[in-house]
Amino acid sequence: MNSFPEKTFIVARHEFTKTIKRKEFLFMTFFFPLLFAGISILPAMLSGMNPAEDQKVGYIDLTESFEFPKSIQNEGLSIGSSETKTSVIEFVMYREISDAKQALQAGQISSYLVIPEDFLKTGTIELYSPEKEASMSNFELSSELSDIVITSLLEGKVDESTLNRVRNPVNIKFYNIGKSGESSERSIADIFASFGLPILTAFLLLFSIFSSSGFLLRGVAEEKENRIIEILLSSVTPTEILTGKILGLGAVGLLQIGIWLAAVVFGSGYALPVKIEPYTLLFALIYFVLGFLFFASMMAGIGAVTGSLQESQQVAGIFTFAAALPLIFMQLILTNPGSPFSVFLSLFPLTSPIAMLTRMGVTAVPISQILVSIFILLISVYVVILLSGRLFRTYLLMYGKRPKVKEIWKNIRTESR
Amino acid sequence: MHAVEFENVSKSFSEKNILENISFSVRQGEIFGLLGPNGAGKTTLIRLLLDIIRPDSGEIRVFGDFLSPAAKNRIGYLPEERGLYKKTRLLDMLVYLAQLKGIPENQARLNAESLLKSLELDQYKNKKVEELSKGMQQKIQFISAIIHEPELLILDEPFSGLDPVNTKGVMVRIMGLRAAGKTIILSTHMMEQAQTLCDRILMLNKGRRVLYGPVDEIRKEHGKNSLIVEFAEKGNLNAIREISGIKKIIEHGKSVELFPEEGISVQLLLEELVRKANLTRFEKTFPSLNEIFIETLESVSNE
To answer: Is B297 within 8 Å of chain A by CB?
Structure first.
């Protein structure tokens, strides 16, 4: 086997360059980050772009007990941008409701408030605005109003600090307790990094594993359908073809993941501050490599046994569906990561890469479970490579009817090469 | 040293015997015909030779040894089921296939360019295979089999789907390869081409060896020792019937086949015939490979 590594490398390089030129690969790789950007940045941009407009609000205070400031600066909610959008609400006092109404109709003010005489009893304030103009600004106004009401009611009666506490009763901070008892503050960014990122990584892994093992399936099925497989087999052994393909497409998958991660990190610089934990990355990498090997060799076996591209994709679909189970049960894993079902999904080799990374995102998974899951996956990878190698050698040159499961099983056991 | 040796090789698939106890050898530098009807086991034999599948029993040696990966590089193969990457650029595909045969990339590129040029296909080198005509694809397939300059070339039905002009072209190329000292195994059921090209043949039927040896000897062995004659006037036939020493006469339209008795020399018979009739054709028959093929298959199936 002196030429073994060389020919394997030639196959790997061929598969790599062929695949990265495929339209499907380019589409998947570059469209996906755009999609991600669309999902994460767009809403933030939209909310940032739609701050409350400056407005003039009239008021009639029938209780004659409230003090309205001339204007307030309103800091708009802004996720998408580091700049804070501010809008100004200007208050104009009217003595008579009819005056306010006239001003509204003349367009001098955008709305007016009436504070009824029995306000203290009912807590009701009436807001009048032109038809079809109720918008975001009204909601903002209401939060500003409670502030004004609280201040006016309590000013002078309680001290400044009590007043502030009443205006802003609680301010929750999140802390994590580490293994050795040290505590650390969690910001929203931290929560996203430990919660969102593993889930995002899990998604990326799943997509990459599916797409590159899908390319492998396609490649094998096409070569079989094209009959070029016979020429290949006259030059290289089935093992060399299988190994070369897995290496080449694995490299494609890593490249894809790299591009996506770069896009996420780069893109999230705008949208959300993200820190990537080396710990998470390490396990993501381990699960990617093992998950890819598992699926890729399975797809190679399926491609070898089935007779045409279409047929192979139908058979592969069954396994792809099984692998997508964690996505279907994502809600369950997220809300109850320690349940027996979640644990099962994170140990079962078809679903473990995604399920485990998701669990790791929401809870501290015992290291023993992680190791067991990796061990099971390793054993499964070994078994699947062995089986697929045999299927590859036995069925690559058999055309026509797809063999029955019983025959395949018999051939796997008796295959002598 | 023989290029290929099979010793008592058997192979079965799901309890069906595809090849039974096959022995033969291919000499270096000869064109060896692998003949037989469809399903005789020719393709299985070739796959065994190429180590794509392994025999159940028996020994196969190529270039005097068990087939090593290095020896695989010395073999070129044109499979019966033609296959090419449809969406890959012609040149890239040929370079890849040559690299898999152990040719360095640069050399592979040079070989591909010069072969494409010699077959007047160099203007298509950046096209995809699917954009080429059937005839061109056949030529590309042939190039892919010889791009690494193999010492042993295995051609499985190289004439199928070719028009007479291209058939002739492939025949000329095969003879050219033999002249260059290459060994060629030609699997076909085109008997006319096999008879013209092959030095020796192996004929298979239902996985068994039914004929094996040099083409000339096989044809001699199967000679019926008859003569074909034609003459100018119809009436001559009656005169011929009077000649002694002919045990049987069969009329084939214009010509007549004569079967001389044992011990009658062809020379004497010819003199007699010239005296009695106005001869326009006199020919000692020599069965064609095609006739032997059909005759052998019939005799086997009657057993």
So the answer is: no
